[in-house]
Amino acid sequence: MKGRTDWAAHIVLCIGVAAFLLPIWLVFASSTLSAAAVQRGELTFIPRLSGFGVYYRVLTEPSAGTGPAWRMLMVSASMALAIAVGKIVISVLSAYAIAFFRFPFRLTAFWIIFITLMLPVEVRIIPTYMVMSELGIINTFTGLTVPLIASATATLLFRQTFLAVPDELFEAARMDGAGPLRFLWDILLPVSSANIAALFVILFVYGWNQYLWPLLVATNPKLDTVVIGIVKMISTESLTQWNRVMATAVLALAPPIVVVLAMQRWFVKGLTEGEK
Amino acid sequence: MERRTIFSGWLLPVLLVLPQLALTIVFFLWPAGQAMWSSTTLTDPFGLRSRFVGLANFRHLFADPLYVATIWRTVEFCAAVSTLAIAAGMVLAIAADREIRFRGLYRVLLIWPYAIAPAIAAILWILLLHPQIGLIGRWLNSIGIPWDYQLNGPEAMLVVVLASSWKQVSYNFIFFLAGLQSIPKAVMEAARMDGAKGFFRFRTVTLPLLMPTVFFLLVVNLVYAAFDTFGTIWAMTSGGPGKSTETLVIKVYRDGIVNQDIGSSSAQSVVLMGGIILLTILQFRFLGRRSGGQ
What's A100's domain CATH number? Predict the structure, then answer.
């Protein structure tokens, strides 16, 4: 094998890489065209330097069907962060309780949490909507985020991590007189930091990319996430300003991609180990 | 598995588990119960009163040829998306697992698409395949091949399948690469010494060792195709033209939110719950095999 170039592998990988990079590059380059040029079907792979003003315009001015993109990006970022942090916090707490204590109805609690694995929002669209309107949290940031924070996957993952913590560590902490909360904060969390980092990436991407949920509970344009906004922009078919759509798409893609790339090593390890 | 060492006391753990439990009950169990209840009731046309009708909603649902057609369409869609995404992910992972130059770079370039939102994938593919402005769609029409997925059902199906499977390749790639890297070097070395080469070695040594990963990904991909593709389909075709790209989730959304038919859409939600319970059970079966085999 050594000394000979493995052409077949290079060709396969180049095709694969191109299949993902080229569409994105096409959208990036074509976002600098004028709306009329796109409408005539003149997409390009060469960006027009004078056309980059479109990014300033979509960020600051409203487009047909939506508000300015900076606002939608803020909503998306707050939503993704609230979901990621919220899920991690409540999952760490519940997994800690289930792994390190014995209390009445412990198994019942575990199974109730476990069941949520089988009830993604897509299968309970109407009933969840009805419950939300009874609670009066339609069109609120609370409604957008809090219902997505319950997480069986994260609880199971942390429980698994916590169960693997050696008994010696626990005994040593108890000898030092550390109480349950001290132990969690000073020992357990540092030991699990790689898992937390991995989970953060997965959950941030999950939160940022939500579509059906905000579509359902946030009809107020002020709560439009960037993913919702972009679909609104193309739904006004006759007036679609494609250069603006493409610029917004680039802006919507950038944050989750940056997060994945920046934390790639933890992310890949956490994803493949956690979902086993 | 349980821990041998534990803290004593019960008040603190109850407080710790309470937030998770409360959210689960309010936003998961209550709606699920609500769905089961309203799936057995019928609301009058003015939405004023509802009465108990037993399983009538389900009988109507399965007697409706449109619903049955949607089930089959969803099955076909899921099978196509899963097959394409798994095959592409596997081929790329096998190539990236070779001892070649730039493999670190290749891996990075194939991992980032994990971050693409299903609805944004739809935008990218519209710009490729749209009959008037899309790069490929326009080209097809210009060389005399009529192409318009907004009017032609099978073409629309092809478009949503392509966009949906494209988005999932990266996920599968990550898992196949991890699966390949967990195969002991000694096994591959032994196969090579015995003269097993190329496709024969892949079929007799690599593939059997990858089967647990394949089964696991099959279930994950089916769930993805059935539920997470709502954004892709809704943004590209909204289930059209006609009903040619309407999957079960699109139909629940349309019947329940757009057309406000609560009884029928609740019954549909209950059917979906049944489906996902089945898939979850399958997943745990294969999950057991996966960890048992390693």
Answer: 1.10.3720.10
Tell me the residue length of chain B. 294
More confident: A46 or B85: B85
**Quick check: B142 contacting A, CB < 8 Å?**
no
- In chain A, the residue whose alpha carbon lies closest to the alpha carbon of B134 is A41
Q: What are the tens digits of pLDDT across the range B230-279?
A: 999 999 998 878 888 999 999 988 888 887 777 788 888 888 888 888 88
Q: Is residue A87 part of a domain?
A: yes
Q: How many Cα atoms are found within 13 Å in the side-chain-facing hemisphere of A269?
A: 10
Chain B, 211-240: which have a CB under 8 Å from a chain A CB? Answer: 216, 220, 227-228, 230-231, 234-235
Q: What is the share, in percent, of chain A residues with pLDDT greater than 90?
A: 30
Question: Chain A within 8 Å of B42 (Cβ-Cβ)?
Answer: no
For tokens 């739809």, name the residue: B122
> Structure tokens of A24?
């994105």
Q: Which pair of tokens denotes residue A83?
A: 């979901």
Question: Number of A:B CB contacts under 8 A?
Answer: 295
The amino acid present at A57, given as its one-letter code, is R
**Among positive and negative, which fits the CA dihedral B264, B267, B269, B271?**
negative
**Whole-angstrom Cα distance, residue B101 to residue B271?**
50
What is the number of structural domains in chain A?
1
**Is A122 within 8 Å of B249 when comparing Cβ atoms?**
yes
* Nearest residue to A58 (alpha-carbon basis) of A258, A245, A227, A254: A245
Do residue B95 and residue A13 have CB atoms under 8 angstroms apart? Answer: yes
Provide the CA A237 distance to its chain's centre, in angstroms: 28
The reply to whether the predicted model has a pTM over 0.80 is yes
Q: Which residue has the tokens 């799936």?
A: B39
Residues 6 or more apart whose Cβ sits within 8 Å of residue B193: none
Distances (CA, A) of A205 to A69, A77, A120, B84, B110: 19, 10, 16, 23, 16
- The answer to whether position A162 is within a domain reads yes
Pick the CATH number of B51-183+212-292 from 3.30.230.10, 3.30.450.40, 1.10.3720.10, 1.20.120.80: 1.10.3720.10
Domain hosting A193: range is: 62-274
* pLDDT of B171: 93
Q: Assess whether the previous peptide bond of B241 is cis (omega < 30° from 0).
A: yes
> Is B133 in contact with A43 (Cβ distance < 8 A)?
yes
Residue from A17, A1, A13 nearest B95 by CA:
A13
**Residue A268 corresponds to which tokens in the numbers above?**
């890949």
The complex's ipTM works out to 0.88
Q: What is the spatial distance between Cα B83 and Cα B286, in angstroms, rounded to a whole number?
A: 18
Place of tokens 């588990």: B17
Would you list the DSSP string of B199-213? HHHIIIIIHHHHHHH
Which among B120, B119, B137 is positioned nearest to B128, based on CA atoms? B137
Distance from CA of A104 to the nearest CA of B (A): 7
pLDDT one-digit tens code per residue, A130-143: 888 888 888 999 88
Q: CB distance A253–B290 less than 8 Å? A: no
